[in-house]
Design a protein that fits this description.
Blueprint: E1 6-11, H1 19-29, E2 39-43, E3 57-62, E4 80-85, H2 93-110, E5 118-120, H3 121-124, H4 135-143
Length: 154
């Protein structure tokens, strides 16, 4: 099992998609072996110019296995977990205030991390703006969670 020291939050820089579509972009367009992220949180719009599907808003999808080093932030992949939210500049409440905190509340204790071990991509690479929202706000939200305990599964 690899040592996990941080969790890095990303955005897809697209207004639609899911883990399957990002996997296709990463493998076919970039020539990678798999999707670069370990988790993807959808926004309910799975395909370009397709309608919003409420039941898919905030869905947490598995990407690359956590045991496998990701491909999401140069210089930090070996010791991090990558989470990608579908979106560019706008994200849904389900993504930001339900699914992302829920996933973090599972991962933080599982890997013996703290809230301060959660970063936005831009915090580790100043040339990036990703995830295009304040990860500090997510940290503040998580500080209000009294009993962060590992869940059964994701």
């Amino acid at each position: 099992m690899r040592k996990i020291e941080k969790i890095v939050i990303h955005c897809s820089d697209s207004e639609f998609g899911n883990a399957s579509l990002i996997r296709e972009w990463h493998t076919k367009e970039r020539g990678w072996q798999d999707i670069g992220y370990h988790y993807v949180i959808t926004n309910g719009v799975l395909e370009y110019c397709r309608p919003y599907i409420a039941g898919q808003d905030g869905a947490i999808e598995e990407g690359r296995p956590i045991e496998t080093t990701g491909a999401h932030v140069k210089g930090h992949n070996k010791t991090s977990i990558g989470i990608c939210l579908i979106g560019k500049m706008h994200f849904t409440g389900k993504q930001l205030y339900d699914s992302l905190p829920s996933l973090l509340c599972l991962l933080i204790p599982r890997y013996k991390l703290t809230i301060d071990d959660v970063y936005g991509h831009t915090e580790l690479d100043s040339k990036k703006t990703c995830p295009n929202f304040g990860v500090g706000d997510i940290r503040t939200l998580l500080k209000g969670v009294k009993n962060v305990v590992p869940g059964e599964s994701i």
